[in-house]
Amino acid sequence: MITKKIIDAKRATQLIFLVCGLGIASWAPMVPLAKDRLRLNEADLGLLLLLLGGGALVMMPISGILISKIGSRKVILGSVLAAAFILPCLLVISNIYLMGLALFAFGCSIGTVDVAMNAHGIQVQNIYEKPIMSSLHGLFSVGGLFGSLGLGFLIKLGLNPIYAAITISTLLIFLLSIQFKHLFNYQTEKEIILKFSNVDEEKVATSRLQWFNSTVLLLGLMCFIVFLSEGAMLDWSAIFLRDNKNVEPEFSGIGYAAFSVAMAVMRLAGDSLISKLNSKIVVIGGSIIASAGIVILIFSPWITVSLIGFILLGIGAANIVPVFFSEGGKISGLSPTVSIPVITTMGYAGQLAGPALLGFIAHHFSLTVAFEIIALLFIVVALIYKIRKKSSSC
Question: Measured between alpha carbons, how far is 3 from 118 in angstroms, rounded to an integer?
Answer without folding.
Answer: 21
